[in-house]
Amino acid sequence: MRPENVVLSDDGRSVVIIDQTKLPGHTEYLALTTPEELYEAIFELKVRGAPAIGICAGMGLYVCANSFVECDETEFMNRLTKTSDYINSSRPTAVNLRHALERVEKAALRKRGYGVDAMLSEMRSECIAIQNEDIEMCRAISEYGLTLVKDGDGILTHCNAGPLATSLYGTGLGTLLLGKERGYTFHAYTDETRPLLQGARLTAYELNKAGIDVTLICDNMASIVMKQGRINACFVGCDRVAANGDTANKIGTSGVAVLAKYYGVPFYVFCPSSTIDFGCKTGADIKIEERSPDEIKTKFFSEPVAPSEVKCYNPAFDVTDAELITAIITEKGICRAPYTESLKICAAGDK
What we know:
Number of strands: 14
Distance between the termini: 28 Å
Number of helices: 11
Helix content: 25-40%
CATH class of the largest domain: Alpha Beta
CATH architecture of the largest domain: 3-Layer(aba) Sandwich
């Protein structure tokens, strides 16, 4: 089994992605070849999910660098850095985007002095390594996740953290998919995740496709299913983890965490260790992307659902306070409070 959502073309001239904005009704592939196409695909959520964004950006930087092949090494690096900065500006909240771009840039620097062809070859190897590492990371996270649940559990999900958002298995959904392979029976309750409906369009699609029992609910129904005792755990991904354990994820995540705390439901955050940003002390230091009002008033509707003159506030993410999180599951282990200590141990590779 190999990834389908983000792949480098055989000739290295394009990054081929599934356009997630067209799912679940249509499966369309896009070949991205320019910085502008990469920026637009990331910004418009044609590719989304922190790990998938990082994979796409790393491959995309290599693809763009192929057009710099006639430059000398100094000009090559100047253009590479400029392109990297431009792609990075497309989604400021997801730390994987910056990390992947930095890794591919550093790969080029490792071969500086050996010629541009050698620099390009090293970049190609690095962006492929980023994806292969993500595949192994997703499996490891999913293995740890299985230790936290039992057969028959009801799991609430928010947004999408499955294969579409990563490479294989996913982070927040990986435990469900791996469990299915091993004979577990889970009952998923999937928040639609307004305003862009990633839960309805993507998570419900992936779980249904995998043969997992999934029930789609509106975001404001999370409280009642918890109160009714249908939920044994909440599974979410995240785009950034601050040093104190605060996490940034799709808007609405913090509300789910508050409800889970009230009803005594474990709230688990699944993410690669690369998502931990020790340069970010708390969630207050995380820049929150704000998006177009049209996503609330007109997107997915045949007619506007609010007067055109009404203002909208449309943050793409919110921050869940560390005190609301039962555990943060990474490929290196399960982190629990106090996160200022456990995250450091995790990052060092100790389990």
